[in-house]
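>> received
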Amino acid sequence: MSVENLKSQNQNTGFSANPVTVVQEVVKQKQAVNRAVNNLLDDTFEKVTEAAAAPVEKTLLNSVAPVRRVISLPDMVNQGDIAAAAGLGALTVVSLPEDCRDLRDAYRHSKSVITRSRYSNAYNYRKYQHDFSFFRGTLLHELMKKAKSPKMKKFVYNIYSLDKTLYNTWFGTLTKKILGIKDGKKVLSKIKNLDGTQQYVRQIVVKRDFLGIKDLTARALKRTSILGLGFMASLEVPRIIRQFKKGENKEEKLKSGFSQIGRGILNVLGVSIGMGYGGAWGAKKFGAFGSLIGMGAGLFAGCGASNLIKRLVLPKENLVETTAV
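>> returned
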């Protein structure tokens, strides 16, 4: 075949037989593929790193009570939950003294571990768990202690009597009976009751406790205040009322409202169960510092579980999914 015929054929097929040109094209294609692969790997690594870091970041933020409350406020306001935002903001303010004391204790405990110095705990966290309080150490508690008239003192006493944990309710009694949980040895701790006296803590006695679940359940019940549960539930009420007004007809409004009731229940359960068990495990293993970190991790896990159930079971709604107290 002549050279002229070869050139003519190459021109018709659009293919250049020049070796230099071919090599240049191959190099360009290889470079393009390398860039695409590198971009994909970088993007994947960034996403994986971000996903891996998210639980850690959220756990640390959730461990600091004032922070986890404040970061929820903008979303509440944007969603129109003004009343709920106001209530959570008020709780942030009145709880600040006790929250700061918790952070102080956690810092001192962690510092003693790092420096191997002596640290005096309020009691032996591995053996005991004190009952949490909704009022203790808050600004409201300080205000209530100033009551002087007989009527105000009686009112304060009645409020104090309501500030108990799930462990000391009929639900706690039933749970203890089913799981075979009993109260053991009683010792005096450095924790103070609402009336200023030192609080006794009792050992939790459980037999045949697989993986320590029964013990953690008892501890979680002691860490869950019924007034705290009531406050969380009250934050869901404005959303429920608003959802009952949505829809073209009565059937749609009822469906929307009851769906939000389900979301509210899951919100409260996710927060309370997650923080209760997470904080109980952390406190038992690592004391004051472990309690805060455990609550943060438990809140992250509990909210994640409740949100997953809502996505699988309930109709999708563009609402703030959880409230942390």
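>> The chain has a mean pLDDT of 80.
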